[in-house]
Write a structure and sequence with these properties.
Exo/Archaeosortase_dom; about 475 residues; hydrolase; Spore Coat Polysaccharide Biosynthesis Protein SpsA, Chain A; alpha/beta; about 15% strand; protease; 15 helices; nine-stranded mixed beta sheet; three-stranded antiparallel beta sheet; 3 domains; cell membrane
Length: about 475
């Protein structure tokens, strides 16, 4: 019998998964403990046949279940490996575990395993899902379950950890091949997450793991959660879905992958936001006692209205200042801010190029650099969509008008300064005849939306701090 580690597995009606997991760890010959929450299929019979020690505990949530398991099983090995029933240990990871010795890892309290997640038979390789590290192996007696989480089950150790990048645990819930099961399960999970987030608003919960972007995988997750909680509800599911799909290349996961990212990043998060508002509406007296003022729906509506107004007004002005059936000579000659912006960008680009010793000339639409070629500034080059998004967000957010106006002016100047840098680089290095998988407009917009999101985060955080300080005074 393996004296280095034991396995703990939590189950509920896992007859389709448990044999697969047990077969993957059979050769490790380690003590086996299974905590069940009332299975009505053959799960317990399978566990007994494998020689597992079985306990029962009514299910509240995953963190509570793991807490019960770690406190009630008679584990005698120095380490435990905590697995879900729908996970499988790969041969590569099994081989590494077979060589594991506590004597060689005295300085460690925990080990992260690399996980591959599958949905409807497809490995989700992108969208932030690979690599994905989970703290699954902990020193028994030191590691514990984070009860400050309501749904995300997370093990915590006080000491040093290591990350095993080679070898995987494969996670595939075969019951989720039926989409109604996935929706029903995540509908239950959304209740837990919504309740948890409201309790965090009321300062009834705190984070156990120290938030640190450059720390361990769990510390980074804690930092990202803090960022997430500060984002406006109803907007954040959309932003997260776009981020997963394009910035983290989730679109490369194919049709099944895109469905997964939509369900997990958008649908699930949107349902959570709706349920948060339902809870808040029921608990208004308690919220007033805490001094919390929460109005995400008003912000979202204001933001969407302003964004649509700015965006389509720009298109309207562009349409009536371009030769055609709806052309307005007066506006084209006296109020054509789109033309003024284009000229400013072109002349700014010429100035920058001249500072670096290049010879450049321009007319109303084109930038020519001697020996390099020509770039043409069309409407989509001007950054008006970015400016519309940025300005709408700032104006919709509850802050002092003076702060908003200063921030908008600085933001627009920053956006267009980076736009000029783009034109300079394009004129010098972007080959017109080269085949490109992604055009430069897409690349620029992706980068800019990330920068805008980061900038807005710090601006919102700064204004919240000022608001809280004013209230305290």
């Amino acid at each position: 019998m393996n004296g280095q580690f034991s396995f703990i597995i939590i189950t509920f009606n896992e007859e389709v998964h448990l044999p697969r997991l047990l077969e993957s760890i059979k050769q490790l010959d380690a003590p086996l403990f299974i905590l069940d929450s009332g299975s009505t299929d053959n799960t317990l019979a399978i566990a007994e046949q494998a020689g597992a020690k079985i306990l029962h505990n009514n299910f509240i949530n995953h963190p509570a279940q793991w807490d019960f398991a770690l406190k009630n099983f008679p584990v005698e090995t120095p380490w435990v490996i905590c697995l879900d029933a729908d996970q499988v240990v790969t041969p590569e990871l099994s081989a590494r575990l077979a060589k594991f010795s506590d004597a060689d890892n005295r300085d460690l309290d925990g080990i992260y395993f690399n996980r591959k997640n599958f949905f409807k038979g497809r490995w989700i390789r992108h969208g932030g899902y690979s690599p994905f590290y989970l703290l699954k192996m902990i020193r028994f007696g030191k590691g514990y379950s984070d009860l400050n989480e309501n749904m995300d089950h997370r093990l915590i150790v006080p000491g040093k950890t290591a990350i095993w990048k080679d070898g995987y645990i494969l996670e595939e819930n075969l019951k989720e091949n039926k989409i109604s099961f996935w929706i029903e399960k995540h509908n239950r999970y959304s209740d837990l997450v919504a309740q948890e987030e409201v309790e965090r608003m009321l300062e009834m919960r705190s984070q156990t793991v120290k938030p640190h972007f450059w720390g361990s995988p769990d510390e980074r997750t804690a930092w990202l959660k803090q960022f997430w909680w500060k984002l406006p509800r109803y907007v954040r599911p959309m932003l997260y879905f776009i981020y997963r799909l394009f910035f983290q290349l989730g679109i490369l996961d194919g049709r099944i992958g895109v469905i997964f990212h939509f369900l997990q990043a958008f649908w699930f998060r949107l349902i959570i936001d709706v349920k948060i508002d339902e809870i808040l509406k029921q608990d208004q007296p308690q919220l007033k006692k805490t001094g919390k003022s929460i109005g995400p729906l008003r912000f979202v509506i204001t933001f969407l209205v302003l964004f649509a107004a700015f965006y389509y007004f720009n298109i309207f002005i562009f349409g009536i200042t371009a030769p055609g059936n709806h052309y307005s000579a007066f506006i084209a000659d006296h109020l054509n801010y789109i033309r003024w912006l284009r000229l400013a960008l072109l002349r700014g680009s010429v100035a920058v190029l001249s500072w670096f010793g290049f010879t450049a000339i321009t007319n109303e639409y084109e930038l020519l650099v001697a020996g390099k070629g020509v770039i043409v500034l069309v409407y989509s080059c001007l950054g008006l969509g970015l400016i519309s998004f940025f300005s709408a967000f700032v104006l919709a957010y509850p802050a002092k008008l003076k702060s908003k106006l200063i921030f908008i002016i600085c933001g627009i100047l920053g956006i267009e300064a980076l736009n000029i840098l783009r034109f300079v680089l394009l004129s010098l290095f972007w080959g017109k005849n080269q085949n490109r998988i992604v055009d430069h407009h897409t690349i620029f917009n992706l980068i800019m939306y990330v920068l805008i999101a980061v900038t807005l985060y710090f601006w919102v955080k700064h204004n919240d701090a000022l608001t809280n300080g004013d209230e305290a005074n």
